[in-house]
Specification:
Keywords: Oxidoreductase. By secondary structure, the protein is an alpha/beta fold. It is about 45% helix and about 15% strand. It has one domain (about 5-340): 3-Layer(aba) Sandwich (Rossmann fold). The strands form three sheets. A seven-stranded parallel beta sheet has the order 3-2-1-4-5-7-10, sandwiched between helices. Strands 8-9-11 form a three-stranded mixed beta sheet. It has a two-stranded parallel sheet with strand order 6-12. The protein binds NADPH dihydro-nicotinamide-adenine-dinucleotide phosphate. NADPH dihydro-nicotinamide-adenine-dinucleotide phosphate binds near residues 9, 11, 59 and 192. NADPH dihydro-nicotinamide-adenine-dinucleotide phosphate binds near residues 56, 201 and 212.
């Protein structure tokens, strides 16, 4: 019952590896460097079932996963670039799409015994900016908007649309591959909103933090431009705890009814007001973050302006019971203070 986790040194992936090991599934992770692989081996050294890694330097290379897939029964494909700094959209789209198609091609070539493949998609593949906010999204929606933006504007599309197009195109490629190849295994996709919660992954500095946690930490350390501070009055996103996302992956790998399904994992709207009010509660002596008191009474109203991604199906089918926001923010910051001394 060996499970392959691609991009095992990532934020979501490290937690997913931990949950798989804790549930008794031996794990093989793919990482880009031996450094990161060794970090993970050390992190999981007391696990009752083994963790090992193989190096896959670039998921976009044809045949990158040919060796990695041998002997596994389940695959969680999480590796994909998540940053908002790409100039050429292909910096994101190529690894996202080729990595997804590539891992499926490798399975086809080298492993007839795979039972389930779960990919980490995103609400970025569901959100549709053609629809005015606030809107409630379910799993039946697709982000055609970002794909069109990138097609029409190329490098001049927004960085958000470049990332969202990469997630949409990768997931579309996944379902199309399944339709075209009719494999003996079946697929499922997990769609997190902005992921918060404790870090476990190999990072040595704040600069190396993954994009979603870095956003929260920037609010905590006060590392913000004046213009960004205005965002304290806005609610541009939904959020979910990383432990709920990793459980979603684990259950999507092991639950028969998850076959062929998309699952939003999301626990509702959040705005930076929520961040700073939690900081004030748990770290009253820190004076690095903005003061949210003035807007505290408007929290509900501010958050009501956000889109809503309905994560109820993940609760119903996968049994994901969502962590609460205040505890998740505290656990995130505690872990970053402990690991990186911010
Ligand atoms: P991370 O940046 O921590 O994880 C990304 C992982 O992908 C890393 O292991 C990274 O390797 C690997 N990777 C990226 N590009 C390549 C490449 N070309 N070749 C090999 N490996 C590569 O971020 P997350 O954990 O947040 O992201 C994991 C997945 O979750 C992604 O698919 C992302 O789109 C998705 N997601 C994340 C959300 C969030 O808020 N965090 C929300 C919704 C979806 P390395 O560590 O060596 O750079």
């Amino acid at each position: 019952d060996l499970v392959l986790v691609s991009g095992a040194s990532g934020y979501i992936a490290t937690q997913t590896v931990k949950d798989l090991l804790d549930a008794g599934y031996p794990v093989r992770g793919t990482v880009r460097s031996a450094d990161k692989g060794e970090f993970l081996k050390d992190l999981f050294k007391d696990s009752a079932v083994p963790f090992d890694y193989v190096i896959v330097k670039d998921i976009a290379e044809p045949g990158a996963f040919d060796e990695a897939v041998k002997g596994v029964v389940g695959v969680a494909h999480t590796a994909s670039p998540f940053h908002l700094k790409a100039d050429d959209p292909d910096e994101l789209i190529k690894p996202a799409v080729n990595g997804t198609v590539g891992i499926l091609d490798s399975i086809k070539k080298n492993n007839p015994n795979v039972k389930r493949v779960v990919i980490t998609s995103s609400v970025a593949a569901i959100l549709d900016d053609d629809i005015p906010k606030p809107h409630t999204y379910e799993e039946d929606h697709w982000n055609e908007y970002s794909v069109r933006e990138v097609k029409e504007k190329g490098r001049n599309a927004t960085n958000g649309d470049k990332y969202r197009a990469s997630k949409t195109l990768a997931e579309k490629a996944f379902w199309k591959w399944i339709e075209d190849n009719k494999p003996s295994w079946d697929g499922a996709a997990i769609h997190p909103s902005l992921v918060l919660g404790p870090i476990l992954q190999p990072v040595k500095s704040v600069a190396e933090l993954n994009t979603s946690v870095a956003g929260l930490v920037n609010w905590f350390t006060g590392n913000h431009q004046e213009a960004e501070l205005k965002a304290i009055k806005e609610a541009p996103f939904n959020w979910v705890d990383v432990r709920d996302v990793s459980l979603g992956h684990l259950r999507a790998l092991t639950t028969p009814e998850a076959s062929g399904q998309r699952f939003i994992t999301s626990n509702g709207a959040v705005s930076p007001i929520d961040f700073v009010l939690s900081f004030a509660k748990h770290y009253p002596d820190r004076k690095t973050y903005p003061n949210g008191d003035a807007e505290a009474s408007r929290r509900k109203e501010i958050n009501a302006a956000a889109n809503f991604y309905n994560g109820a199906k993940a609760t119903k089918v996968l049994g994901v019971q969502y962590h609460d926001l205040d505890g998740s923010i505290k656990d995130t910051i505690d872990s970053v203070i402990q690991r990186l001394g911010v």
